[in-house]
Structures are given as C-alpha cells and as structure tokens.
Amino acid sequence: MDHFSLESTVSLPGPSQPTPVTVYKHLATGMRLVFVDIVGPQATATIIVPTTEDHTGYTIATAGRDGMAEILPVFLDHVLHPTLRDDQYVTEVYHVDGEGKQQGVVFSEMASRENSEADLLDLGLRKLLYPQSQTYYYECGGLTPEIPKMTNEDIKAYHQKFYHPSNMTIVVAGDSLQPERIFKTLIERDILNTTEDKGGVDLIQEMDISKGREDAPIMSQETNFTSKTIHFPSADEDVGSIGYGWLGPNTFDVKTMVALDILFRFLHETSASPFSQEFVERRNPLASHVDFEVKGCMDTSLLLLFSGVPIRSKGKKPLANDEGGDEEHEHSEQEDDEEEEEDNEQSEDEHDQSDDDSEDHSEVNTDDAEEAQDLYQPGYFHSQVVKVLSEFVQNGLSDPTEMSRIIARHRTKINESIEDDPHEAATSYLVPDILTHAYLEKDKTKAASIGTRSNIFVIIDELETMEPQYWRDLAQKWLLEPSVVEVCMIPDSRLGKIIKSTVSQKQQELVDGFGKVGLEKQVVMVTEAVAANKVNMTPEIVAMMPPIADAAKVPTLPMSAHYISSAKPGSDSRPFKLVQVVETNTFFTHVKLCLPLTHLDEDLRPYLVLFQELIFQSSCAIPKFVQDKDGSEEIEFEHLDYQSVVTLVSNTLVSHEAAVGFGNDIFACSWLSELFVLACSAERSKYKEQCQLLLRVLMFTEFTEDRVLTVAKNLATQTVELKRDGADMLAMVSTRMTTPVRDYELATKYCRKMDMSPRPTAESAQLESPTVILGNDMAISAFRQEPFLKRVVQELKQKTDQVPKILSKLERIKQAMLQSISEVVVNSKRNGNSAAAGFGQIGIPVGFGSESGETKDPVGLLTEVWDQELALYQATTGYSFVNSNGNQINNNKKKRKPSESFHQHQEQPSVRLTKEAEEAAARAAHMTLDDESLANKPTVDSSALSPFPFPRTPYKPLASSSNGTNYAPSSVLIPLKSITSSFLVSIVPCDIVYHPNTATEENHLDHYATLLLCEILSRSEGPLYSAIRGNGYAYDASISVYLWTGQMAFEVRDAMDPIKAYDAFLDIIRLMDTDWEAAVGGQFEMETAQASRAYQTIMERATAGGTLSWVLRGAVRGYQSVEELTKSNNYLYRVGVPDLKRVYHKYFKQFLNGRQGLTTVLLTPPSPPESIKTHFAQYGIDFQEAALQDFEIDPKFDFISSATPISSVIVSPEGTSPSSPLSSSASSIV
C-alpha cells in the first residue's frame, strides 16, 4: 500500500444488497483503480482512457480473482506500451494489396459500416447536435476516405499523448477481490514506471467541451428546427427512418437525467404508450418501432428514433446527401439500364399485389388520405411528434397513479439489468463520474467523486413524490421549448452500384499509380507484414506460462435443480409433461412453458409469427365463475382492451416472451422451432399473479380484425428492414438451404428456375433417420412471412371472405397449444411428424417459500392455475380436450351470460379429428381404439414420451449418386444492393451431440475435440485470424459448430475479398493434413483453447439467467442432473492431439469435398464479377446466382378454399440434395 492510497468508498445499488465500491489512487501517476465487489465466478477489468468520442474502454474478463491478478498487469502493459510496429499498421489498419484493393482490418470494418442506415443516422444527428470542435461531431472509427491519409506515426503520437497512467482509470469487478495482490504485481513488474515519461495531456485544455458550442447547427438563431435528409443504399425503397435530437441537461444533473429516462419510458415503452399509439399501433402505421436514448456523455443529448417509416412518394430522390455530396460518383447508362431491368423484373412479381391494393385505394376515405401523405415532407413528421408531446403537456396523465407505476417498473428494470449483467451495470454507473473528473475537474489533486449514481434509488424515490405537473414541465422544458434537429433516412436502390463503382474507380487509380513494379512491392510488403505479425511462442516463453486454472475451484452461483411431473396420476391432460425447478441467486421468479408444435395443422404454421406478436398485445376477455342468487354458477367476463392488457403486463411482469423456439428474433430462432415458448419473470411476491397472467393471456386473447391488421403491417415493414442486413440475410439464406422443408414450401421462383426434370431417385438407405421431427424455421422465415403478411394485410383491408378464416386460424393455434399430450401424439402422426412432449422450467430465488405468502410448491401452484384457467376456457368456448384414456377433460357445462365474450360469438373451428382420421392415425401409430370411450378417441400410451432428451433431426445431406453427380444446386450467390462488403458461409454436417446414457468414450472426446479445434482455428491471432483478417481480406472469419442442428460452419463477415478469404481457409484445412503443427500448433495451443472453453462454460453460470439457460439446455440434451452435466465437462481436459486429428478427418476435412455435402452461401455487393463463380467452381462449389425475392414462398397455399387439402408431406425432389434449397435434409424424409 506504499504506492497506493485509499481515496473513497461507496456502495452501488443492487437488487438484494448494495455493491461495495473502493477507489484507490496511485501516488506517483494519479492513476485510479476502482474495485467493485460482485458475487459470482467472473472477474472483469476495464481500462478507461478519455479519448474520442469521449473515452475508450479496454475490457478483459477472467474466471475468478486469481486469473485477474495474473493477467491484469500483462493487459495493462499492452495498453500502455504497445509496439505499434509498421507491419502491424499494414495488417490492422490499412494497406493496398497487389491488385490495387484497399484493405486492412479497420478499413474493412468501416467500409462495411459507414453506409449503413444506422451509422449514417447516428453520425447525421451528431453532426447537427455538436460543433466541429468537439469529438462527438466525428466518426471515431474513421471514414474510408480519411483512413488512407493517416500514418503509423500519427497513431504513435496519439498514443503517446493520451495513453498515460495519469489519464487512466481501471475498474476491476469480481468476487472477494484482493487489491493488495494486484498492487504488488503492478509494482513488481514495473508496469507504472514513468521515469522516461514523455506523455500526458491536459484534457481540460485539449478537449474543452464548451468550445465552439455556438457553432453547432442546433444553436442556429434563425430557427429552432433543423432538418437534414440522408440517402442510404438499399435494395428496396419502401421504408426509411427518422431521428430527432435535443441537447440534454448538465452531466452533473443526475436527477433530471433519471427523470427524462422515466419520462421516455412512459412515452414509448409499450404498445399502449403515447408515441406507440400515435405512430405504430394504428391502421396505417407511420413507423414500425420507436426507440429513445438519453446519452449520458459529457455533453449530453436526447435521441428519439422512428424506424420502419413508410416511403409514400416513390419518385427517385437526388443521390447527393444534404451534407454536401462531396464525392463525385460516375454511373454509366448501361448500369442504369441493367438496374431498371432488374427493378422492372421485381415489380412484375408485385404486379398482382399492386393491382389488388389499387382496387382497395379506389375508394376515397380517410385511410387513403393518410396513406397519400408524404411522411418525409419537411416538418410533417415533426409536427406529429410535437402533437403527442403537446397533448401530454396540456392534459397530463389520464390516470394520476400511472407515473407511480412507471417509476416502479423503472426501479425493477434497473434491478433486472444489474442481475443480468452486474459487471456492465456497475461500469456504466461509474464511467460518467470518471469522465466528469477527467474533463471538468481542474484540480486533479482533489479526490474523484466516483459513485455519485449510487443514490439512484433515492433519486427514484424522490421522483415518485413529484406532482403530475413536474412531468408536464419536464417535457415542456426539454422536448418542446428547446431547439431540435431531425435526420430523415431515405433508401435509394441506386446507391449500392454507385458505391461499388466508386470503389472500382479508386482501385483502378491505385493500379495506375503504383504501376506493375509498385504493386509487386505491395505484395512483398503485405506478405512480410503478415509473417512478422505471426505470434511465435518459443518453448522458453511457453514454459513461463502459468498452468490452466482448475475450473472446479472457480466460485459459481449456488444452484440446484430437480424435475417434477406435471401430469395428474393416470392422466396426461396438459401439454407439458415435466417441469424443471431451478433454485439459484435471483431476485425474481421465472416461469417458462415450452409447448409442442409438432402436431400443428400445416395451414396454421404461417400464422405463428402473427400469433407470437399478438399474444401480450391484444385484448382479452377473462372469464370467472360467479354464483347467482339461486346458487347456480354462471360465467362473467372482464373485458380488457389491448392497451389495458399491455399496461397490466407491464405492471405485473418484469419481462415476458411469446415466441417460436429458443433465441427467437421474430423471423428466426436459434433452435427448437418445434416448440412455442411462453415465458415471463416477476418479483418473487407476485408469483401467483405471474402464473395467472401468463396463462390468461395465452387462453383468453382475442384476435380482432383491426389488431391483426396493425400488427401484420408492422411485421411486413420489419421484413423489409431485415433484408438490408448482410449478416441476417446470410443466416436466413443458409437456414433455407439446410433446413427440412414441406412440399408447398418449394413454391419459390428459385425452385422454378432449377432444372426439375426426372432424375435418379436416392436410395432408401440415404434417407434413413433416427428421428423424424420437423420444425417451423421456414414457417417463420422472412421468405415465408413477407409475401404472407402482405397478403394478410390485403385480405383484411379489402374485407374479403378470408378475414374470418384468418381470425379463426389464430384461435386454432391457441387450441392446439392447449391439447393434451395424447392429442399431440395423434395429430403429429396425422401430419407426418414425430410427436414431442412439452416441458416447463421454474426458476426461483434460494430459499423461496420461506417468506410470508410464498408457496412451497411452485409447480403445484402453476398446474393448479393451468387447470382452473383451462376449465374456464372450455366452458366459454365449448372446446374439450382428450386424455390418453380417450376421456374428455374437465367438460364443464356452465352457463354463459349472453352479451359478454368474444369467444361465445366467434365461430370456433375445430382441430378435432374425425373418427375415420383418428382410426387411420391410430393404426399408423400402432395404437388401439376403445369404442367404449366417451367420444371414440384413441387410447394412447404417451407414458414413454419424454421431453428430455428432446427429439431432434441433425443435418444430413444426401450422398452423391453412383457416378459422383450431385444433381441439385447446393450453393447460391446473391448480390445485394444494401451491402458494401461480402458475407460467406460454408456448411458441412457435424453431429457431435450424443445421448449421455448411450455415448461412448470416443463420442464424448469427439464432442470436446471438435469444439477445441474450432477454438484453436478461430482464436485471436490464430490461423484464421492471421491468414484472413491479418491480410485484410475480411474483418472477421471463424469456424463453429451449430450443436443442435449438427452443422459445422465456416463464416466470413465484412469481406473485401471473399475469394482470397476462402482460399486462405482451404489452405489451412489442407495444411492440417500434411503439417499439423505448422497449421494448428501443439500442446500449448490446445491448452490455451481448453482454458478458453472452460472460461465460456463458467461464464454461462455467472448470472441467474445464464444458469437457467445452461441447466435447461443440459436437460434438453438428456442430462438428468446438474452433477451429471458438470461431470461431462471433465472430458474437456482429457482431449489430446490424437483426438483433434481424428475429428479433423471426420468433420473438418469435409470442406475439401466440394459437391459432396457442402453448402455455400455468398452475399456480395451489386454486380459481382463472373470470376467469383469461376474461381469457386474449382472447389466443386457451383454457384447459382439468385435474388432474395427468388426464395420467397408463394402464399397462395395459405389462402385457398377450406375444401382444398394442404399437403403436409415432407419431400425431397427426385435426385435432389437435401442441402439444396429444393428439398429437406435426408433425415427428415418420411
């Protein structure tokens, strides 16, 4: 402690107890170390350097405090004393290669980002809010026209100026940290020695944020409203976005910052909020999403963002942006003609849709007038924003208690963020104080006031006492009276080609400028730089490394788990069979129900996205039994409009989800698309209310025409925005290429383009599968949903005879989710799918049940509520369910009051089977019929059907035919107008998930060896990093395994040269076969990968949410206990080099097989050169060029006469490969 002094102590807020914070100061340099005591296995350190925009944070995370004590001095040494060699600048920042292409890691990243809608909007707002003298005015990552002007000497000078201990603060967070141990290591290793110090900077003088304030556009004396239009490249011109910015309060004014956060939560958070009501939740939406941000930088700002704003004027806009259009673009007439032909071809696909819409628009009404308004007309959209704010200022809250509920939710959401990521939450509370001291405190000898936001809950309590007028005045002062800036983002389908043309012109200029000899020198320079940057771990250095830490010694959150059957004795009346109960350190109670969808009728599947978005955001008619005066029971309804439902959900639940599969992102999910997930969390005192609300929303949601229309319109808009993102589209197309499909899902233009003439049929042996189970990945994909949602909107607007069918199909999905496991089995067989049982998970705090009012049987309470609500559902709909004995479940015949429920009036389509269909299904499933049962229902033995392990179908493409030919295309090339760099993925089968009870020793070793080899190849400074990122071919390259689907994927993102990136990857795969150590390394590399994998496993259990996910994933894979799951991780340390080589030959070498089982997707900017196809063909990758529109599934099958049956057969066209977009995988064919 001779070198450090204790400066202050404070406590940050926490969900259950305060978090202690201790601040020390290094006496010689003034550098501060802030220690935050957070319970859990993770330790993090963030080195904060005040630089552009106002600071840079370097973060490292370790498993436990011991690892942090060892690594922090090394990490700090790298930040303070980097070598910054010229060869590092060549690979990491910028260079020109032998073909005249501009490359480098930083250059590649910015080339892919700088023309994106989000980046242009953010920079556009900052340029209007701040003067050129402030760093906020600039893009801190650098723009591609500016990066080539920089030199390595500039970087060295910048580093010397700002990267000095006196200008640094280190935040270290973890469990039971030992500051003295870290101090000792820093001093012993002489990390903070400043004897030869020449750096340091006076931040207050260098970066005075008050300088030039009057020069910012927002400070204009002529107007208090400044607007700017910016165009961005996009394949479509349907929707854009509009953003608003205001200057915020002083950074010291924490109370006002918190109050504005709460005010914006009220204005926008839910679909019942004022902004959502005015802009999103309307028959003709003005936007699909509203967001806000209170930016707590040194010069604060308030941002309000509207995305999915329709473009209602289709005339071509000027290409030059309002910001000056300083770049000259040359665009040939030929390119214009080609583009016009392409646009015309796309418009033909939408011709019928347009005709139908025009018929709808022929009537003059208010809807038409609204849709004719140009939302980007200067001042129009802003006037609507002002309208909402003015109404609030003038009228205040309709309910005086509403703000108290918003404040209570704000408090709870803070607790949730602390529980979800305590390290990030703690750092975010501390950084503003660190920067305030750096930029605004002139006397640096004063103690830094770090931890001023520790009283945030005190501030919130104070705000809760404020009169309603306070909030009206707040909106008036900060949002209505001050100047505001507006940025309108408008898509332009021409910009992609223009940007590409500009890049080509620049490349030609560089080729001409360097000449042949100069380009040859560039090749030598880059080659030498890559070689120089290769990490050379000598035996002497390796010997100095500490051994791999024992993961078992790292403290983890306390956790226990057990399983409880949810079934009644002798009955399977519920669709979820087992409930996993997990007790851990959490402030909340968590309920998750995973309901099977395997039995869903095929005509219902495209409605799943609508269903998941309508749940929690639609009106409900909630029934309850009441006794009349005569003692008889009747049912009364409490009708809640959707705004009331949204408000009730917001007030009761901390979080909630209704989604297809796990990791759902509306139009895609990570895995288990065979399930519908209904989940929520709440404060522990609200557990019963939580269960009741969750199930009532599921069972008593009403699907109304207006609500479905609004939600469908907004979803359709989101599909348009989704298709602009290269990474999202890469995932969507690759899923389409490798996912089993139903026959009607082949109704795409891409399939019609392919040669479908008869070909040899694959042998039956190639079609075998241990499990046949088909999910809903394609049903929820934007390829299905975009045309489907547009058709839904069309039918609803025109009020066709399909409207009742649309509403009834949504109700049928609900009915299917409530079916018993027996009915799930029968209907799954009928639809050609394997049955699956649902399951649940309940996460509770340690000791739950000990406090007053808490149940000691959370599963029993959940199932009791389920049965009560299901009885009410049956009584109000007349719908009954059947158990495994063929008996109707809870057939309550109660009276209904005639004027009440939506359910009473709605025509209830039955998903019940006819007797003939049931008999056929029973025979197919080897069941027997009991004629004496109540309704002649099949007697089904579902006792053997268990959700753990959950059935799955791994990816398994067809083998080639006997003559080596693979008939259907397995690779596709898609040019996108919305991207400026390329994205690529190659996929091969790799199934390394085994049932724990049947897995062999080699199976377990294969699992971990495969994951380790992926880690070795993809790690920072590893083979892929050096060969691809190091050469500037792409910003990122990695190889990974999708465990559940059984796929291994090599992926390249933001590539400037996808050809060279793929060449480099295959060179590594080949070298592994001939010179393993040169390609992969030896024991040290393997041990490093083991440490990395061990860390990832430990970090999964660092938070309550991560713990719940980890243990549920283990159950789904078949692990019966936490101990069994933990024990399986021991195989990680038993993997040796022979195991790595074995899995190399089994799985990794498949990438060299070309047409045999390899699926490749490449997305490029517009007009890719023909050389791409030629080059990849040598590897057996025969690209078929296509457009995204070619993969859209024709919705005509979704809107046909109910008398016409829809095929549910899972098909593979004769001779096609399941890895192709034409068919399902072999493992899904029945």
UniProtKB/TrEMBL annotation:
Domain Peptidase M16 C-terminal: 149-284
InterPro entries: Metalloenz_LuxS/M16, Peptidase_M16_C
Span list, region Disordered: 314-368, 883-946
One GO MF term attached to the UniProt entry: metal ion binding
Pfam families named in the record: Peptidase_M16_C
Biased composition range(s): Acidic residues: 323-368
Entries under SUPFAM superfamilies matching the protein: LuxS/MPP-like metallohydrolase
Protein name per Swiss-Prot or TrEMBL: Peptidase M16 C-terminal domain-containing protein
